[in-house]
Design a protein that fits this description.
Elements lengths: L3 E2 L2 E2 L3 E5 L6 E5 L9 E2 L2 H6 L3 E5 L3 E5 L4 E4 L7 E5 L5 E5 L6 E5 L16 E2 L16
Parallel strand pairs: 5-12
Antiparallel strand pairs: 1-2, 3-4, 4-7, 6-11, 8-9, 9-10, 10-11
């Protein structure tokens, strides 16, 4: 559980947004940022985001529902969302746990993800649904 990143306290209800501000989310983070991670799958390698997760009920779109675009690939199970204006990935419904949204830690208001230090990398090339070693990735 990460309750502070640099000088920014992680609030129980924390705002996240895309780069241009067209998409604004409210995340329920009562325990702070839990288990941040990177993934080495083909999509995550390219976008380079650090992800953490919340239950589906823990993410509310405050602004920009009509601006969000969705991308799906491979099994078309995970639903990846990004701003249709600036292109920033904000969140996704996870493949390995469809009852959760993964969110882009870099979108959290006031958070510099580079201050997190070492972030674990999960093996998304060999997805957890396709092996017995479950990894908290998407």
């Amino acid at each position: 559980m990460i309750k502070q990143v640099g000088g920014t306290a992680i609030k129980p209800k924390h705002i996240a947004s895309c780069h241009c501000g067209a998409v604004v989310l409210e995340l329920s983070l009562p325990d702070g940022i839990v288990k941040p991670r990177r993934c080495n799958c083909s999509l995550c390698r390219r976008r380079g985001a650090i992800n953490a997760s919340v239950p589906l009920a823990g993410l509310h779109i405050l602004k920009g529902q009509d601006t969000l675009r969705q991308y799906q690939f491979n099994t078309h199970t995970a639903r990846h969302f990004f701003c249709g204006h600036c292109g920033i990935y904000t969140h996704h419904q996870r493949r390995s746990n469809p009852a959760e949204f993964g969110y882009n830690v870099g979108c959290l208001e006031g958070v510099d993800p580079f201050l997190l230090g070492e972030v674990p990398v999960c093996d998304g090339v060999n997805h957890p649904s396709e092996r017995h070693n479950l990894c908290q990735r998407d």
